[in-house]
Amino acid sequence: MKLRGDLARLEISELEKVCSREAAFRLLDGVAGATKHVVTAGPMHIGTLNGMASDASQSRLAATYAAAFRSGLKVFPYFA
After folding, report:
1. Whether the Cβ atoms of residue 4 and residue 28 lie closer than 8 Å to each other
2. Over its length of 80 residues, how does the chain's per-residue pLDDT go in tens digits?
3. What is the Cα–Cα distance from 48 to 13, expressed in whole angstroms?
4. Dihedral of CA 60/61/62/65: which sign?
5. What element of type H or E holds 65?
6. The predicted structure's pLDDT at residue 68
7. Number of structural domains, the chain?
8. Residue 38, pLDDT score
9. From the CA atom positions of the chain, what is the Rg in Å?
10. Please, are residues 30 and 40 in contact by the beta-carbon 8 Å criterion?
11. Residue 33 belongs to what domain range?
12. What is the pLDDT of residue 60?
């Protein structure tokens, strides 16, 4: 996914200059698609290392972060 590569090269300070909270949620919601995730604070296993690059895993990751940001929880999704 080209978007992932583009985002990976950006620094947080650059993102803060061009990205509003609403735009960030639109991006996360767009990647998450129909995937919804219930989050709890702390570490959260969301997939395997072998499947990490799949669209389904990226959707789960985006849905997890979107739900956490909306609820104010600190989550640490991981693949293992």
Report:
1. no
2. 455 556 566 666 666 666 788 888 888 899 999 988 778 899 999 999 999 989 899 999 999 999 999 999 999 999 99
3. 30
4. positive
5. helix 55-71
6. 92
7. 1
8. 79
9. 13
10. no
11. 2-79
12. 92
> What is d(CA 9, CA 67) in angstroms, rounded to the nearest whole number?
24
Two structure tokens written together for 70: 């909306």
Count of helix runs (H) and strand runs (E) in the chain: 4, 2
Helix crossing, 55-71 with 21-32: angle to 10°?
140
- Residue 23, both tokens: 């735009």
Tell me the backbone φ, ψ of residue 41, rounded to 5 degrees: -65, 145
Residue found under tokens 């090269």: 9
Cα-based distances in Å from 7 to 19, 32, 38, 46, 59 = 12, 16, 25, 21, 15
Rounded to 5 degrees, what are φ and ψ at 55? -60, -40
pTM of the predicted structure, to 2 decimals:
0.73
